[in-house]
Amino acid sequence: MKRFLLISVAIFVLAACSSPYDDLLKEGNEAFDKGEYDQALKLYEYALDEEGDGKEAKEKIELIDMYKELNSMDEDDWDETYDLANNILKHDAINDKMKKEVKETLTTVEKNKEEEEKLLASLDKIEKDIKNEKFEKAAKALEDFDFTIDSSEVYDRHKELGYALEDATIAFAEKEREKEEKKAEKKRKEEEKKAEEKRKEEEKKAAASQSKYDKYYDKAMAIESRMKDAAYDAGYMHDYSMISYKFVSDWDNLLNEVWDVLKEDLPSDVYDELLEDQREWIKNKEAEYKEYSDKVEADTYLGYTTMNRTVYLITHYIDY
Predict the structure, then answer these.
(1) For residue range 195-240, what is the model confidence (pLDDT) as tens digits?
(2) Is the distance from CB of 32 to CB of 40 less than 8 angstroms?
């Protein structure tokens, strides 16, 4: 009996001598179990002030901090929220109330992650349409896009595709414009080629049907016509002899061309006689040319006399 009394007294003394840390920890646990986490946090911190190595108080503080961080995270931080929620559920100090709340959060996160993946998959299809130049379809899909959840990644992706569609549309229009320009340029060159071929064919036909006389007479008349125009512009009206110095090379070239034809076509005896006459003409031309002190006057004489000689040879000897 005496021994029983001694044990009872010892238990009473031990109970009466509980530390302030234990008392504060107990109060903190009561608040924690009620879900009063702010109050529990203060009590755990007070408990650590009494006993800095209090393991349980530290664990509970760690758990409450994780829980508060979970509740303060952005709604669309799905991956971070998911990882943190799982870490909280693995914590040894978690209670049933917190476990239930965290599981609900985790369920919401999983649903949102799944929905986000669906939305991003839909945006991937829109991107594919843009790359395939299905711009109207992509534009309508972007316009009708249903943001079923708040997700910065989905919003940013949608915005990027809007810019991408605009850039792609502009680039496509530019490409089409360049394509049309190249097409028009190709068509123009083909038409020019056809026109040139037609012109050459017509010239060829005309040349074939035209006598040598007509051919070189027309060439002479073309130069004479240009001389008349130049004389008129210079104020000499139709006295084109005054402008002959500008056409020396034209008449000289035509004279050489006509002479080559005569050399080939004329009978040898006629050609030999004409050759002597031509040499005499050249001799006289050069001698008279030297008598002029003024170069313009000299060239005027040279152009005029070469013109007359050329016309003479055409009209008297071509088609001889």
Answers:
(1) 888 888 766 655 544 689 999 999 999 998 888 888 788 777 667 6
(2) yes
Neighbours of 250 (CB within 10 A): 21
Identify the residue with better confidence: 40 or 303.
Answer: 40
Residue 128: which H helix or E strand, with range? helix 96-131
Instruction: State pTM to two decimals.
Output: 0.46
Positive or negative torsion for Cα 227, 233, 235, 238: positive
Classify burial at 17, counting beta carbons within 10 Å of its beta carbon; exposed 0-12, middle 13-18, buried 19 or more. Answer: exposed
- In the chain, domain spans: 17-121, 210-317
Helix (H, G, I), strand (E, B) or coil at 52: coil
* Residue (of 161, 110, 108) closest to 139 by Cα position: 161
> Residues 117-124: contacts with CB within 8 Å, 24+ apart?
119/147, 119/148, 119/149, 119/151, 119/154, 120/153, 120/154, 120/157, 123/154, 123/157, 123/158, 123/161
Separation in Å, CA 114 to CA 72, 110, 117:
22, 6, 5
Average pLDDT over residues 260-282: 93
196's enclosing H/E stretch is helix 152-209
**Is residue 260 very low, low, confident or very high in pLDDT (cuts 50, 70, 90)?**
very high
Q: What is the per-residue burial (b if ≥16 Cβ within 10 Å, else e) of 118-155?
A: ebeebbeebbebbeeeebeebbebbeebeeebebeebe
Measured CA to CA, the distance from residue 4 to residue 149 in angstroms comes to 69
pLDDT at 108 over 90: no
CATH number of 17-121: 1.25.40
